[in-house]
Amino acid sequence: MTSSHPGHSMLADLARVKDARTGRLSSWDQEGKNQDYWLIPANSTVRLATIEGPGCITHIWMTQFCRRVLGAGLIDPTAGNYVAPVFEIHNALGLNWEVADPHYYRKVLLKIYWDDQDTPSVLVPLGDFFCTGHSMPGNFSSLPISVSSKPEERYRFGGSAAFNSYFQMPFGKRAIIEIENQNDVPYGQYFYIDFERYEAPLADDIAYFHASWRRENPCGGWGPNLQTNSPETNIPNLDGKENYVILETEGRGQYVGCNLSVAHFQGSWWGEGDEMIFVDEDTWPPSIHGTGTEDYFNHAWGMQNNAFLTNGSVIHESIVPGYQVSYRFHLTDPVRFKNRIRVTIEHGHANHLSDDWASTAYWYQTLPSPKLSILPVEERLPTPPGDRTPERVARDRLTPEQARQIDAADERFRAYAELRDIEIEKKLEITRRRSAANVSKGN
């Protein structure tokens, strides 16, 4: 029997005839009217689809809304039962009084189960799965994921957007897709789940799609008050033990990318951290060692406000101060592993920064899946904007070298401030002389 083998090449595959049947499960109004969304209850899990295999999910489209009503409106709530829930009416007009829940993209979980497993292989906040970090959408189009948002909704906490995933997700026996709403209010979910079913079983070399979410808020930096790229931060990191971990799993497969959301209010910049990817039996140095955060995301000299097919910025700190969302997909250069993999990156050179980092890792591996976990909802909420001066790390938590570097930074700043005060006084004296001259000339 010939086995089914999803994938091959995106364009070449269009010319290949397959023993497959295409299908879709969606939120369409099965009564034939126009209430084409499902209302997902608060604190509840709803199954969107169960698909018997063998098969492959080829595309997922989603758009959603979550509003908090602040007061009684003048529009009859029953009048909107069979129409699209569009309320583009300013609250100041008095017809309605409601706001979008700003953080619901982090309160809703996307969960996908493969075959007979009772734990999910995909466990990610809905927004972060689609590279919508900080619960704040931005327009971009990569090969596996795209987001489309209207200008007035872009860069807003909880702004509306259309999400697409084109990751191929093959399965042998079945696929189960669920939404868990951990919010205290219901929300509306539109969706398409497009798939193929095959007559023959999957090939033996097919791995299963996985995605998981992590966060450190804050990362455990040793010198968060030190300026990035300053001499004092330039100490060696020769083990990577304190790095931020994007992915750690055991099994066989390939890591195919991530998105990273950073909230940084320290005042310099959040990068300079090297990626270090430990493959199989790696100790030190790892098989893959990079040269800086911006370099891992295939930018340079900081991050640019560009979004490309396999790398880019969804949110750039120059547009939304303090916030960055970046992505890197290893579509032509997957990182393959036979036994285990640990994907890490420094938070600032030698891990000196203490920013809010959250990431989604995407990878394929053979079953069984690792037992994925996720932080409780209150620990997933985005960091609000604001100017914050990082607190110093307690001295008893520092290594001797780190303590010396912080002392050196203090001494350098003291000497710098003294020289600057002298120069300021010189300029003030010039101002006084010029002011006196203008007064005398005017008499």
UniProtKB/TrEMBL annotation:
Residues 388-399 have a biased composition (Basic and acidic residues). Gene3D superfamilies: 2.60.120.1390. Pfam families: DUF2961. Residues 377-405 are annotated as: Disordered. This is DUF2961 domain-containing protein. It comes from Sinorhizobium glycinis. The lineage of its organism: Bacteria, Pseudomonadati, Pseudomonadota, Alphaproteobacteria, Hyphomicrobiales.
